[in-house]
Each structure stands twice: as C-alpha cells, then as structure tokens.
Amino acid sequence: MKLLFDQNLSPRLVNSLADIYPNSNHLYNLGLDAAEDSIVWQYARDNDFIVVTKDADFSELISVRGFPPKVIWIRLGNCTTNNVEFLIRSHAKEIKIFSNDNTLGILILS
C-alpha cells in the first residue's frame, strides 16, 4: 500500500512513515504540488496510491468519479506534522483494512 500525501501535508511524512508505508510519496517530490486535483486524482489512480489529504475536495471527487483512488481524509484542523504522523500510525490497522476493502473509497481520521 502506497500513500500519496497532498500538498496540504508535510513532505516529511514520506520519510517519517516509510517504515510502515514504503514507496509512499508527496506531491511536492513529484512536481505535482501545484497541480489541479483532477491531475492528482489521475496520477494516484494510474500509480496505485491512496491519497492522504486534509482537503474536502477529494471526498467530493469520490462522490463524482468513484474510486480508485481511495482517499484518507485527515480531519484534525490546524495541527503539527507530528500530530498527523501519530494519527496515521495509530490507525495503521484500520488503514490496512480500508485499503483491502473494495467497497470503501474514503476513510476519515480525526
């Protein structure tokens, strides 16, 4: 399972979570940090990523386009990168179940 971190999350998450989510990436590292959501959506779909975002736009794309890609929507408000890392780590089991469930397209973490 590969995570693709949206521009509203820190690129540092790629390295800090590499032990449990290897081969993940960040839009900044791919040169897509200024890309429109539809381009990010297609990139994630074409490359088997789960999009991780704090942006509601991706949940709206799921309702219009379906999935894949799947989306993990971080609902923490203003927080540190460490808070986001802790949230993702503490929900690793749910994220794995979510990634394997073909009936679910969005996972909300808060």
SSE arrangement:
Elements (H helix, E strand, L loop, with lengths): L1 E4 L6 H5 L8 E2 L10 H10 L2 E5 L3 H9 L5 E4 L6 H10 L1 H9 L5 E4 L1
Parallel strand pairs: 1-2, 1-3, 3-4, 4-5
Structure description:
By secondary structure, this protein is an alpha/beta fold. The chain has one domain (2-109). 39% of the residues lie in helices and 17% in strands. It has a five-stranded parallel β-sheet, with helices on both faces. β1 (2-5), α1 (12-16) and β2 (25-26) form a beta-alpha-beta unit. It starts with a strand and ends with a strand.
DSSP summary: helix tally:
5
Helix content: 25-40%
Whole-number tally of structural domains: 1
Percent in strands = 15-25%
User: SS-based structural class?
Assistant: alpha/beta
**What is the general shape?**
globular
Count of beta strands:
5
Termini Cα gap: 21 Å
Whole-number average pLDDT?
96
Oligomer: single chain
Q: What Rg, in angstroms, do the CA atoms define?
A: 13 Å
| Spatial order of the strands forming the largest sheet | 2-1-3-4-5
Secondary-structure element order, N to C: EHEHEHEHHE
Unreliable sequence segments: none
Q: What profile does the largest beta sheet have?
A: 5 strands, parallel
